[in-house]
């Protein structure tokens, strides 16, 4: 029978691709004095931590991400294009292809890039780098935090405590270490023994032994030397593995590299051993006390048969150790696939060799050495009528042998269907070869088979698990009676009950080395039973004529349990998988997977109810976390993916698009403090266009980049204050406008402050915030008034020229009156003198640089050099009436050591220099505008 377990296990476990030339990944190992910081990076490098993390990921159906991580690490170290092409293709088929069972969680855009790169450039070193970064993000933000809340993490911490105290941890890899050491030790010891025996057979004395004996010993020595060389080569390669031993170590390459020569040499040995085995005793000739056989038995205190059968015994031992190595190697181990393949191949070789040995040495005519210690109860020769398992034997002569504990038959060596069987004496001259040996308690016999009645009463049927044989043999009744009696004695039954009670309890070893324990009926598995598989898995359930049927339980080597209803030898319908960690998944089981509606109860108390596909959350569902968080929406491969709504326990709500457990696309987030964001998302952060409104009333509408304002956007602080322009990483940067009701800045920004060229306009109060139209009207009225006055002055001058005889005193009096009319009213500095506009370069929010223009309403215009908002060096002040002052300042303080000059519009040819060393005074009407030498200009205005 085939092992159906493989299909089920493949659906629940994931395997990892490998290459025979895998570069070694650098590893760390915790020492007793080391303080451990369990970051994701450390866990991936430390073999003990990694083993626990791997086991957790397998149970969460997401080990493919970690497998991809290690595959990329190895891929990056491959040196040649040929190696990358070969390994890269395996990686693509295993982790990238949509048809793969281990497809990793990357979006279609990444897959498209990988396909394009392969098509245009081939398998480059950086082919999988972007996908690798994405998977690392998933491990960092999703898998690793949950691992730290699992039972596996608690066990890991206990192991780390043992290490800190200098004790040996109980890590998952311990059994594999022991299996490896057992194989390595066995190979070393076998090589040493074979070498010793070969040396003993090398010393031959023709006078002590016959020519035949010398020939046998030469042949034994030759084959022992060849076996020794093969075993020593394996032991040497294993020694290299031991010096670099780690849990991820590949061992199958050692065995596979030696397999061809190994099978060849051992096949020759089986042939030789089969030939000399019947005559072993005669090889120890008493006439020659010093022959090689006697020397060996005396020196090593062992029987000569033990010496000659040493390779056979070690072969069987090696097979058992291989099975233990496979059982102790986890399903996600990089060597598990190749190791299983070699172990199965080796097992088949052992079976084949044993069968060959039977075919060569168990000829009935040579007294069946196999049965020499058994009592033969009955024998006879007949014909096979119908053999269901091998129709080619139909009609072939066979010999039937009945012993106290087994029923055996052998077919004619030539398989000649024309061989007569009626004459038993003649038939005994035929050479027969043993074909089957059946335990007597598992033998059923029937007579009067409906389909074979036409052949007469001499035909009866022999049935046993996996065997259904109809035979014709002389003395049929006697045979049936004898077989029934032996079966009854073996099973503790009355011989009459053998036919009326077809059901029996028994144990049957199948060809795949699995063990059936339970009820059998008419040679078939039928009823409640248990099957123990070679890898340690156990099936417990019901059989109907060799087929698993009905409710049953399958326990895996990992401790995980599948409970389901079996139909046609496979689980189907409602099923439940209980993992060792405590996580339980239930749903409809079909084609090796749970698909359709289902439920998961995680070990941490989280609950998922919804759609499944291939044992993973796929489709629509609801996931309620153990901390009270709740997600309702679409899933893909166990990730929140598609449209969904997420309620967190602190009253945060997100409704929108998801991609691989992260907010991605468009969505609306209501934060616990009442703030709201509505717009684009990427990697769980606002990204693209979006609007953010805070409960205080501020509102930002614009572009985002991974959670930060970036690009163009407008931030309304309040109804009267806003910034509209460019942003970089949440800071105003680039061109923008800021207005807060009294200040208006339009220009360049950097690091959240005006930096670069810009215009600053200030409106300190409502009285001074006049429209430009009103200001122009006032200016026009003043200009008209001045013009009229000037015209009057001109007319008066003309009259003076025409009336030269008028009294000079009257002219002086007129000029004095005109001057009084032109005189401006006193200026109120607090109301009329404020900075209305600053134009020029800014630095960190202050005017800074050359050629800064400051407009002080319509009264003053300053053009100056400034440093951090203060007048510095050369400064030109122009008044409303055209008067100009040029002076030097140091940080808003007038520099009295430098000359001050001013220009009066009506007397353009008169320029006066003023300093404190002389008492030259300004013309009348100007002294008011002279600035005190130590008062800052900005403080004054």
TrEMBL record:
Residues 175-350 form the DH domain. Pfam families: MORN, RGS. GO terms for molecular function: guanyl-nucleotide exchange factor activity. Residues 756-827 are annotated as: Disordered. Gene3D superfamilies: Dbl homology (DH) domain, Histone H3 K4-specific methyltransferase SET7/9 N-terminal domain, Regulator of G-protein Signalling 4, domain 2. Residues 787-817 have a biased composition (Low complexity). Residues 39-157 form the RGS domain. It comes from the Eukaryota. InterPro entries: DBL_dom_sf, DH_dom, MORN, RGS, RGS_sf, RGS_subdomain_2. The keyword Membrane does not apply. Residues 766-779 have a biased composition (Basic and acidic residues). Coiled coil: none annotated. Keywords: Repeat. PANTHER family: MORN REPEAT-CONTAINING PROTEIN 1, PHOSPHATIDYLINOSITOL-4-PHOSPHATE 5-KINASE RELATED. This is Phosphatidylinositol-4-phosphate 5-kinase related.
């Amino acid at each position: 029978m085939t092992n159906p377990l493989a299909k089920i296990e493949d659906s629940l476990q994931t395997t990892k691709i490998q290459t025979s030339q895998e570069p070694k990944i650098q590893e760390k190992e915790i020492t007793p004095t080391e303080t451990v910081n369990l970051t994701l990076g450390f866990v991936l490098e430390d073999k003990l931590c990694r083993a626990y993390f791997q086991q957790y990921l397998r149970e969460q159906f997401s080990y493919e991400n970690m497998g991809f991580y290690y595959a990329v690490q190895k891929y990056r170290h491959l040196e040649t294009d040929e190696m990358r092409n070969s390994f890269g293709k395996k990686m693509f088929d295993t982790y990238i292809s949509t048809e793969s069972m281990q497809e990793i969680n990357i979006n279609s855009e990444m897959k498209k890039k990988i396909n394009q790169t392969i098509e245009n450039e081939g398998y480059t070193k950086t082919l999988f780098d972007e996908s690798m970064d994405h998977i690392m993000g998933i491990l960092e933000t999703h898998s690793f935090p949950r691992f730290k809340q699992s039972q596996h993490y608690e066990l890991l911490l206990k192991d780390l405590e043992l290490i800190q105290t200098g004790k040996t941890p109980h890590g998952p890899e311990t059994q594999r270490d022991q299996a490896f050491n057992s194989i390595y030790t066995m190979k070393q010891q076998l090589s040493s023994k074979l070498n010793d025996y070969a040396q003993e057979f090398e010393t031959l004395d023709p006078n002590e032994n016959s020519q035949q004996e010398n020939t046998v010993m030469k042949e034994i020595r030759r084959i022992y030397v060849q076996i020794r060389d093969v075993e020593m080569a394996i032991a040497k390669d294993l020694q290299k593995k031991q010096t670099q031993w780690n849990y991820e170590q590949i061992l199958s390459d050692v065995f596979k590299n030696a397999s061809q020569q190994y099978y060849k040499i051992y096949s020759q040995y089986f042939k030789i051993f089969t030939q000399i085995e019947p005559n072993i005793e005669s090889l120890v000739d008493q006439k020659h006390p010093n022959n090689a056989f006697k020397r060996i038995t005396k020196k090593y205190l062992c029987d000569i048969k033990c010496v000659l059968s040493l390779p056979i015994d070690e072969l069987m031992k090696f097979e058992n150790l291989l099975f233990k190595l496979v059982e102790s190697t986890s399903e996600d181990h990089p060597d598990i696939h190749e190791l299983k393949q070699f172990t199965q191949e080796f097992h088949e070789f052992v079976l084949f060799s044993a069968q060959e040995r039977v075919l060569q040495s168990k000829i009935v005519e040579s007294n069946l050495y196999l049965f020499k210690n058994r009592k033969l109860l009955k024998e006879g020769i007949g014909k096979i009528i119908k053999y269901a398992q091998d129709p080619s034997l139909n009609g072939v002569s066979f010999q039937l042998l009945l012993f106290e504990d087994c029923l055996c038959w052998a077919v004619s060596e030539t398989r000649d269907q024309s061989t007569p069987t009626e004459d038993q004496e003649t038939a005994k001259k035929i050479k027969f070869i043993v074909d089957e040996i059946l335990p007597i308690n598992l033998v059923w016999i029937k007579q009067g088979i409906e389909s074979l009645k036409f052949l007469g009463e001499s035909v009866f049927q022999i049935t046993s698990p996996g065997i259904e044989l109809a035979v014709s043999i002389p003395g049929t009744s006697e045979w049936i009676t004898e077989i029934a009696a032996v079966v009854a004695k073996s099973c503790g039954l009355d011989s009459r009950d053998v036919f009326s009670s077809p059901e029996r309890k028994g144990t049957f070893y199948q060809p795949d080395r699995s063990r059936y324990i339970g009820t059998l009926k008419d040679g078939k598995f039928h009823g409640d039973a248990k099957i123990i598989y070679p890898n340690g898995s156990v099936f417990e359930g019901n059989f109907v004529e060799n087929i698993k049927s009905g409710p049953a339980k399958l326990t895996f080597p990992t401790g995980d349990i599948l409970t389901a209803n079996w139909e046609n030898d496979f689980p189907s319908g409602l099923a439940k998988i209980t993992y060792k960690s405590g996580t339980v998944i239930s749903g409809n089981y079909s084609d090796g997977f749970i698909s359709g509606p289902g439920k998961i109860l995680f070990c941490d108390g989280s609950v998922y109810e919804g759609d499944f596909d291939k044992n993973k959350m796929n489709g629509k569902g609801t996931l309620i976390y153990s901390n009270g968080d709740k997600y309702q929406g679409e899933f893909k491969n166990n990730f929140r993916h598609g449209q969904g709504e997420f309620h967190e326990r602190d009253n945060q709500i997100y409704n929108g698009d998801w991609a691989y457990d992260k907010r991605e696309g468009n969505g609306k987030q209501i934060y616990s403090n009442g703030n709201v964001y509505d717009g684009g998302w990427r990697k769980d952060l606002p990204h693209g266009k979006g609007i953010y409104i805070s409960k205080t009333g501020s509102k930002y509408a614009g572009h985002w980049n991974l959670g930060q304002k970036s690009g163009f956007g407008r931030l309304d602080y309040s109804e009267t204050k806003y910034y509209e322009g460019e942003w970089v990483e949440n800071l105003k940067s680039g061109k923008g406008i800021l207005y807060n009701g009294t200040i208006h800045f339009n220009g360049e920004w950097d690091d959240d402050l005006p930096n670069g060229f810009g215009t600053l306009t200030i409106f300190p109060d409502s009285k001074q915030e006049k429209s430009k139209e009103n200001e122009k009207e006032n200016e026009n009225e003043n200009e008209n008034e001045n013009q009229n006055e000037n015209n009057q002055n001109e007319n008066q001058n003309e009259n003076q020229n025409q009336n030269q005889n008028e009294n000079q005193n009257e002219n002086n009096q007129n000029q004095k009156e005109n001057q009084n009319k032109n005189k401006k009213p006193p200026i109120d500095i607090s109301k009329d003198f404020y900075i209305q506009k600053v134009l020029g370069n800014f630095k960190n929010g202050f005017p800074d640089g050359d050629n800064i223009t400051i407009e002080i309403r319509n009264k003053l215009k300053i053009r100056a050099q400034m440093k951090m908002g203060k007048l510095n060096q050369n400064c030109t002040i122009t008044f409303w009436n055209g008067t100009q002052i040029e002076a030097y300042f140091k940080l808003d303080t007038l520099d009295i050591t430098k000359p001050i000059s001013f220009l009066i519009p009506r007397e353009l040819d008169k320029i006066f220099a003023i300093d404190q060393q002389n008492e030259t005074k300004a013309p009348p009407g100007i002294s008011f505008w002279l600035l005190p030498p130590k008062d800052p200009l900005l403080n004054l205005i």
